[in-house]
């Protein structure tokens, strides 16, 4: 046995060997009992124990593609029992400097080390010193994350046109109003009318009154002529410099947040820039992307003043390079959950997220953990002609779409810019997320009682696929009768329909979660020659208090290994026959790390009954003609939904009386 153990150690890369030895010491010394899913996160909560060696050897490549490039900050986040003074005493006793409590969390604090020498590897020795203290429940040294804004411009010179051909029955004197094609009626490349019907929503009297939206970004120029009327300091903070003012640095790298904000609240009829979709909403900014970005920074941003702010808009995420698999850290996940459960006095804040710009890299937004969260409203883009833009990613987690640019006709988005300027060149899914946030603000103006799940249901029910149907492939009709597409979600957001439905909306029944686990799961081989089919059954927790009869989200949590991760294609088939592509081939992803407890999320079976046999199909679709073998080590299916039928399901979802089953629609 000892010889086998030594042989095993010899196979482990040197950069991991020291850490493994430390973990063995932890076990022997009966110190912290587990490592969290993140490598250097140590947790004493016995309820979260895992099998140490396999989890440790995986090293969670999902959080950082190239572990050699990781960088750790001189900051430890520590959960301590006993309160503020106890935390200060522990910091002194173990040789740390107490910095501050983590905003928005009870009993979680920030420590740093005196005379800390910057290094790329985690300081496990210092982490262990904290871990051994009996009052410490959990500790993690903060890793510096790479986060990227999702505005994508390929050309420095962009042409715009005077919008005389659009419906201008509402006129504004703002100079960029004529360029705001995205707020008016247009035509698809096949001649179909296409619109988000923003003007109709205004005519119904909804402009975002009483709603607070905060932009999570690189700051926001709040004294901008087109923003200052709506600026709300109570919805704003600078986490990079730790002060209340989110004013950005005035350079090209820090104009993103100001551009996002303008789409929502530009002041109408002030002869400056353009008109915001929710021009009577209040706007705040959290400056967080212009400096070191850590799990703690993201968590504080997403948890800021959650009983005051209604909507957070985020147009950033992990690298859209077609090879990264990464999501929110432990603290950020807790922050989002707290925002959902406690925000808006229990109704839940709305987290709107841009789906990503990695389309040209064959990226798939299912490899972005912010998209795979059931708590985010993920938004993709539609061009003026009704097509999917070249940069858009596809995944089953995308809920809806709004307008953005296309490099063919070069029509981009008009909005505010730093230095009190205007721009007509905002682009990418970065521009789509604030539009969605603004439309949600119109909906909350119509009905402030909407919960976060009500907002998602209304988005599903009112998003319009019809203008996109004849010019895009990939439309599926699920067993509930809903049209859905991996590029667009349930269609193009319709502001008029959103507010009309919201006005008389009845809250959906309580959400239930039902988990199907396989304690004796037999490892299944994956190879390049055949499809690996795994069948499993669920009764939707029938007869239990968490019974589900009407699906909302599903998550397929996968542990799998394959020599080249990007070769894998993953498909799931529901008991009612709906086929959902959970993962497409990513040609740039050469990682051998596979997936470690990765939650592939889908909304494509929304409204279906979950009971019956599910099928999971995993195959190598790369056509690389290389003999490869991997394995599925474990799967878990988590389904979310309701026992009772939501009231709006009693009505048939109508798609403007159009014939649905055309050449671009499949019915499974």
UniProtKB/TrEMBL annotation:
The keyword Glycoprotein applies. The keyword Glycoprotein applies. GO terms for biological process: peptide hormone processing. Residues 507-645 form the P/Homo B domain. PROSITE patterns: P_HOMO_B, SUBTILASE, SUBTILASE_ASP, SUBTILASE_HIS, SUBTILASE_SER. One of its GO terms (molecular function) is serine-type endopeptidase activity. Its cofactor is Ca(2+). The active site is at 217 (charge relay system), 256 (charge relay system), 430 (charge relay system). One of its GO terms (cellular component) is neuron projection. CDD domains: Peptidases_S8_Protein_convertases_Kexins_Furin-like. Keywords: Calcium, Cleavage on pair of basic residues, Disulfide bond, Glycoprotein, Hydrolase, Protease, Serine protease, Signal, Zymogen. Belongs to the peptidase S8 family. Furin subfamily. This is BMA-AEX-5. It comes from Brugia malayi (Filarial nematode worm).
């Amino acid at each position: 046995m000892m010889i086998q153990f030594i042989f095993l150690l010899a196979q482990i890369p040197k950069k991991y060997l020291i850490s493994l030895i430390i973990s063995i010491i932890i076990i022997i010394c009966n110190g912290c009992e587990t490592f969290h899913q993140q490598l250097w996160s140590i947790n004493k909560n016995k309820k979260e124990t895992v099998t140490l060696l396999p989890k440790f050897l995986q090293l969670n490549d999902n959080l950082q593609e190239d572990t050699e490039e990781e960088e750790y900050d001189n900051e430890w986040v520590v959960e301590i029992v006993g309160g503020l003074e106890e935390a200060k005493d522990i910091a002194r006793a173990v040789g740390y400097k107490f910095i501050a409590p983590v905003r928005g969390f009870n009993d979680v604090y920030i420590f740093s080390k005196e005379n800390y020498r910057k290094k790329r590897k985690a300081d496990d020795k210092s982490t262990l010193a904290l871990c051994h203290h009996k009052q410490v429940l959990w500790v993690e040294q903060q890793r510096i994350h790479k986060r990227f804004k999702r505005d994508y411009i390929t050309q420095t010179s962009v042409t715009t046109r005077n919008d005389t051909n659009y419906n201008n029955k509402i006129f504004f004197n703002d100079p960029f109003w004529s360029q705001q094609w995205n707020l008016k009626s247009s035509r698809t490349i096949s001649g179909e009318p296409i619109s988000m019907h923003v003007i109709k929503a205004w005519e119904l009297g909804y402009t975002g009154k009483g709603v607070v939206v905060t932009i999570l970004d690189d700051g926001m120029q709040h004294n901008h002529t087109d923003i200052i009327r709506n600026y709300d300091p109570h919805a704003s903070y600078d986490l990079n410099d730790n002060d209340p003012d989110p004013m950005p640095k005035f350079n090209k790298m820090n104009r993103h947040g100001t551009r996002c904000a303008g789409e929502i609240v530009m002041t109408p009829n002030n002869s400056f820039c353009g008109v915001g979709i929710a021009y009577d909403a209040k706007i705040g900014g959290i400056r967080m992307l212009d400096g070191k970005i850590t799990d703690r920074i993201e968590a504080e941003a997403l948890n800021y003043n959650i009983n005051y702010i209604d909507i957070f808009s985020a147009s950033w995420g992990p690298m859209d390079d077609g090879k990264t698999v990464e999501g929110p850290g432990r603290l950020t996940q807790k922050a989002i959950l707290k925002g959902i459960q406690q925000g808006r006095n229990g109704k839940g804040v709305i987290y709107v997220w841009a789906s990503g710009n990695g389309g040209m890299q064959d990226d798939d937004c299912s490899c972005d953990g912010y998209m795979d969260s059931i708590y985010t409203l993920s938004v993709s883009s539609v061009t003026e002609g009704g097509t999917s833009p070249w940069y858009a990613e596809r995944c089953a987690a995308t809920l809806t779409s709004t307008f953005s640019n296309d490099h063919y006709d070069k029509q981009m988005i008009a909005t505010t810019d730093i230095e009190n300027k205007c721009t007509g060149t905002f682009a990418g899914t970065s521009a789509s997320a604030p539009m969605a946030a603004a439309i949600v603000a119109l909906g909350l103006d119509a009905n402030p009682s909407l919960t976060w799940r009500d907002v998602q249901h209304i988005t599903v029910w009112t998003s319009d696929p019809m203008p996109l149907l004849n010019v895009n492939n990939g439309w599926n009709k699920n067993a509930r009768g809903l049209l859905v597409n991996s590029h667009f979600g349930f269609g193009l957001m319709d502001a008029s329909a959103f507010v009309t439905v919201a006005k008389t909306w009845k809250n959906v029944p309580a959400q239930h979660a039902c988990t199907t686990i396989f304690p004796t799961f037999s490892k299944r081989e994956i190879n390049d020659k055949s499809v690996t089919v795994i069948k499993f059954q669920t009764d939707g927790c029938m007869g239990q208090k968490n019974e589900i009869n009407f699906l909302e989200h599903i998550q397929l949590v996968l542990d799998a290994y394959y020599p080249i991760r990007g070769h894998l294609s993953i498909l799931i088939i529901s008991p009612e026959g709906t086929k959902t592509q959970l993962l497409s081939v990513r040609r740039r992803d050469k990682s051998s790390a596979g997936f470690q407890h990765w939650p592939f999320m889908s909304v494509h079976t929304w409204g279906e009954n979950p009971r019956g046999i599910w099928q999971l199909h995993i195959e190598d679709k790369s056509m690389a003609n290389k003999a490869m073998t991997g394995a599925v080590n474990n799967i878990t299916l988590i389904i979310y939904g309701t026992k009772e039928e939501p009231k709006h399901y009693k009505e048939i979802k109508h798609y403007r009386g159009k014939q649905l089953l055309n050449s671009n629609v499949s019915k499974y």
